[in-house]
């Protein structure tokens, strides 16, 4: 059996609606967060779990981490049912929620780590070795005696990751870990996750709205929408299907050179060159390049795919999300 095995998972919540005028009681509305979701993940995979707000991503993470109990369906992680064997199960997983902290706010993070060591019953020698390894990988050496409240957001996220990995879990759940981080912090976090996955074969499930994180880390993605799994496969195959708009920047050797293009192509004059925006479905790239070459000698040309966030937005719209 796969390391993570999810079969026909369902979860619904009951939300009270706004009381109508004159009504004594408020009506309840049923929200189906997960509808018959099934998937399998092998040991050591790094998976992107994406979808718009309210798709059911966080609900899935909470069920797989043992916080919530599903209404129906099955789920096993490493041979354990998260909500039934929780006390034993949590010793083998790590969870990081981007907007929630497990470390204590007013004490040095080293004190928080010492408490986590006792909670997870990590032997002293193992703890010291693992802490040293993580502190070096996450660049935390100078921060270990700093209270969490005195750290920047990026530093706090690195500290949280360290705390979640001290007991060297087999499985790491990450729910929006890069939210609010600057570019430098994001790059450092991505490098660390690649290192952790490669060095220790830690299985990682990453939910995020930052598609650059997904593109940099996850060869495989699952798309969730309205509580249902809509796609499971290669990120490149997914993007290729929705890559419908491309941009060409071109400069010619002669000032008089100007391509003659169909009306479906948008052409903008920029400096001594042109920016051309086209849709490969209407005008194949090979045909466009032929028209550009006929206009004169090309000095410089770049072809850029559509921005990855636009691609995902197009995908969500087409899927009705």
Write the layout of secondary structure elements.
Layout: E1 4-16, E2 28-41, E3 46-50, H1 57-64, E4 72-77, H2 86-89, E5 93-97, H3 109-120, H4 124-137, H5 153-165, E6 171-175, H6 183-200, E7 203-207, H7 211-217, E8 220-225, E9 228-234, H8 235-242, E10 246-252, E11 266-270, E12 273-278, H9 285-294, E13 298-305, H10 308-318
Parallel strand pairs: 3-7, 3-8, 5-6, 6-7
Antiparallel strand pairs: 1-2, 1-4, 8-9, 10-12, 10-13, 11-12
List the defining traits of the structure above:
33% helix; alpha/beta; 10 helices; four-stranded antiparallel β-sheet; Rossmann fold; 321 residues; six-stranded mixed β-sheet; Alpha-Beta Plaits
Overall description:
The chain has 321 residues and is of the alpha/beta class. The protein has 2 domains: 4-240, 3-Layer(aba) Sandwich (Rossmann fold); 245-305, Alpha-Beta Plaits (2-Layer Sandwich), CATH 3.30.70. The protein is 33% helix and 29% strand. It has 10 helices and 13 strands. The chain has helices at residues 57-64, 86-89, 109-120, 124-137, 153-165, 183-200, 211-217, 235-242, 285-294, 308-318, and strands at residues 4-16, 28-41, 46-50, 72-77, 93-97, 171-175, 203-207, 220-225, 228-234, 246-252, 266-270, 273-278, 298-305. A 6-stranded mixed sheet has the order 5-6-7-3-8-9, with helices on both faces. The chain has a 4-stranded antiparallel sheet with strand order 11-12-10-13, with no helix packed on it. Strands 2-1-4 form a 3-stranded antiparallel sheet, covered by helices on one side. A hairpin with a 2-residue loop joins strand 11 and strand 12. It starts with a strand and ends with a helix. The mean pLDDT is 86.
């Amino acid at each position: 059996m796969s390391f993570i095995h999810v079969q026909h998972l369902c979860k619904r919540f009951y939300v009270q609606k706004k009381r109508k005028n004159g009504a004594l009681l408020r009506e309840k509305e049923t929200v189906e967060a997960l509808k018959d979701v099934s998937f399998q993940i092998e040991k050591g995979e790094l998976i992107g779990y994406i979808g718009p707000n309210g798709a059911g991503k966080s609900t899935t993470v909470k069920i797989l981490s043992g916080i919530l109990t599903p209404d129906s369906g099955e789920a096993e992680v490493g041979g354990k049912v998260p909500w039934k064997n929780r006390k034993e199960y949590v010793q083998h997983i790590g969870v990081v929620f981007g907007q929630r902290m497990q470390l204590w706010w007013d004490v040095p993070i080293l004190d928080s780590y010492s408490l986590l060591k006792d909670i997870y019953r990590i032997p002293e020698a193992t703890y010291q070795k693992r802490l040293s390894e993580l502190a070096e990988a996450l660049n935390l050496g100078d921060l270990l005696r700093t209270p969490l409240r005195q750290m920047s957001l990026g530093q706090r996220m690195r500290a949280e990751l360290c705390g979640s990995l001290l007991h060297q879990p087999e499985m790491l759940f990450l729910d929006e870990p890069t939210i609010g981080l600057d570019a430098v912090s994001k790059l450092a976090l991505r490098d660390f996750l690649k290192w952790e996955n490669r060095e220790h074969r830690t299985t990682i499930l990453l939910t995020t709205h930052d598609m650059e994180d997904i593109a940099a880390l996850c060869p495989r993605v699952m798309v969730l929408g309205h509580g249902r799994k809509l796609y499971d496969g290669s990120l490149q195959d997914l993007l290729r299907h929705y890559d419908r708009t491309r941009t060409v920047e071109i400069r010619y050797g002669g000032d008089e050179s100007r391509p003659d293009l169909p009306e479906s192509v948008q052409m903008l004059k920029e400096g001594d060159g042109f920016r051309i925006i086209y849709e490969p479905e209407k005008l194949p790239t090979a045909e466009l390049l032929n028209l550009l070459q006929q206009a004169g000698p090309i000095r410089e040309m770049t072809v850029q795919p559509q921005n990855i966030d636009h691609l995902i937005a197009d995908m969500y719209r087409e899927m009705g999300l």
